[in-house]
């Protein structure tokens, strides 16, 4: 099973960017989504941003992940 998680773009430099996922910041490759901008959300899989996502959808997904972790479901 593959899992992609939404993250907020904090900065961009060339085809790399810093993305915030929950309380973590990670450097990810952005070459698959060249049209994105800082403060937008992307799905991150295996160190690459693979798709731009709507902010509302991203926040719903992140809230679900947070709830799962708080309830020790995963």
Automatic annotation (TrEMBL):
Protein name from the UniProt record: Hydrogenase assembly protein HypC
A single GO molecular function, which one? iron ion binding
SUPFAM superfamilies named among the record's database cross-references: HupF/HypC-like
State the source organism's domain of life.
Bacteria
What the entry lists under InterPro entries is as follows: Hydgase_assmbl_chp_CS (IPR019812), Hydrogenase_HupF/HypC (IPR001109)
Which Pfam family, any one, appears in the UniProt record?
HupF_HypC
The Gene Ontology biological process annotation of the record reads: protein maturation
NCBIfam families for the chain: hypC_hupF
